[in-house]
Amino acid sequence: MAQKKFVVGCFDDEATLFPAVKQVRNAGYKIKDVYTPFPVHGLDHALGMRETSIHTAGFIYGITGTTTAISTISWIFTKDWPLNIGGKPHFALPAWIPIIFELTVLFAAVGMVLTFCYLCQLAPGVKKHHFHKRATDDLFVMVIECTDKTNADDLQALLKTNGAVETETQVAEDGWWFGTYDKEDDLYNQKQLA
Amino acid sequence: MHIKYESQLREPLVYGNKDYHQVTEDIVRPIEAKPTRLWYIGFFIAVTLLMFGVYSVYREVTYGIGQWNLNKTIGWGWDITNFVWWVGIGHAGTLISAVLLLFRQGWRTGVNRAAEAMTIFAVMCAGQFPIFHMGRVWMAFFVMPYPNSRGPLWVNFNSPLLWDVFAISTYFTVSLLFWYSGLLPDFATVRDRAFTKLRKKLYGIAAFGWTGSTKHWQRHESLSLVLAGLSTPLVLSVHTIVSFDFATSVIPGWHTTIFPPYFVAGAIFSGFAMVQSLLVIVRKVFGLEDYITIGHIDLMNKVIVLTGSIVGIAYLTELFMGWYSQNKYEGYTFWYSRAYLFSPYGWSYWGMMACNVISPQIFWSRKMRRNVFVTFFMSIIVNIGMWFERFVIIVTSLYRDYLPSSWSVYYSPTIWEIGFYMGTFGLFFTCFFLFAKYFPVIAVAEIKYVLKRSGESYKPGMTKLEAETAEEFAHNHAH
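^ Those are the sequences you sent over. The predicted structure of the assembly is below.
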């Protein structure tokens, strides 16, 4: 994968992060991503992201489950092997509702989680570049991809004036690959932060 | 700026003067330290119980159901009692994580991870009982509807027992997905703190390559919310369907329409009791009193007294209907087999009443709700009571039915029946000990999310916000 250059700015408080996001975007830079240790509400809007439509996918999976259950059970009980159960109707919809409901939920849940993993490129063994180790601990890490016109020093200065506690320029592979974390990442030093 | 406001009147969810890093430290440290001697002792006991259970099951599989004291009249004894008991316990986790998420109850964050883990392990234990009750357990796959060489002979989709197969397996799958998707960010936190290569590799695999990207969080939030929306009716459906196993039959004592709500309330009741038993210990052993606070315990005890009282109303309603229906079989079951203290199983009915209805009333007192020892003691009592409830429902209804000639002799379990039950305790606690040692027992990311709104040291900062008028607030904090 291609090596790219990134400017990384770390913030330690979401209260300074939001104005900084605004300033950086107003200055015309395109923010690649902000890595946060927990979901920061409103950050997606501040970054100009559109709403996710994963719930729509969930709905589609759900009705697929409903349809699967109704069609399978009704085919089995009315066409394939009609059982006479005390002379009751073969098409016994009320008695099937529990299974129809369960399959709806099952399809929706499994489908959504798989879609989520696919969209976010998450799977066991997947490795991605980490711009900062503390992005999963206590830092909000803003990453801006450099273009030919970007002056990395200016950008770092801009981040600093907007409250970044740490800034740096990194060259990294974008995207993801399979592999271990050990090759380039050094291990966490317990005393480092103490 | 995004406003995090919560009234100062609310109790803090996180005590102490914490920042984000401190939260990580507090929660992740216990799983980075070497296990204590106490952990090894507990784990050893759990594995021993599990082994005894495995041997009991081995005897049952080899020699048949005759290893148990079931008979033609009492076809469901301890086995199905234990099944319903474990499934009931398995309801609190999803209730806490899903229903309380939909109701925007911030306090769920401290307890949801452990409660969900408990749910998954409890459902695993529950599943063993109907599977081994089949006798010829190697035929268990017959419950799956698939085109087969036996006709194809299909399963009966009109049967509550098959609904149960779908309900329990769906519930297990969805709970597992919900739990694990919530664990991804926390595994990433542990991975990025790894101090050995092996840890980094294993937690790296477990974290699926999570980075904390804003877009991923946005999808994660949406996923959690929809899974919660799906799990809420699911959790209600599962115990409803378990109650259908009884309610759709024509056995006096089972054939009642009150069963679904009554079972669901009972499930939440016993589930919360089990969460209390476990968390009271976990918070002490891992020093997590700042996160699983007395406030959490208080709130869960409120749920216990509420659901316990709902269950109590259900018991009384059943007794009333036993008289009001003027059905002699119903009357006999409710007023003789159950409520008459000196009938063969009268002791179990009154044990149930004492444990489930009378004793939880102690939690009307705030002082008692906030007492850790009383809470722990009561959580055990409630779980004993809920076991009695299922025993009462199953055995007192079955042992004397319509035909006196088929009335059963007094039923008591064999050592292998008890062993199977003990074995599931072993399975449950083996899993729970491993979970407590290797998994973040509290949702780290979620605690960070509520920290600046509900943390003790951030509460005074709300004073300024509270002093503002609506216009000032809108003016000062508009985007």
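DSSP finds 18 helices and no strands in chain B. The domain at 20-143+157-405+414-458 of chain B is CATH 1.20.1630.10 (Formate dehydrogenase/DMSO reductase fold).

Shout if you want it in another format.
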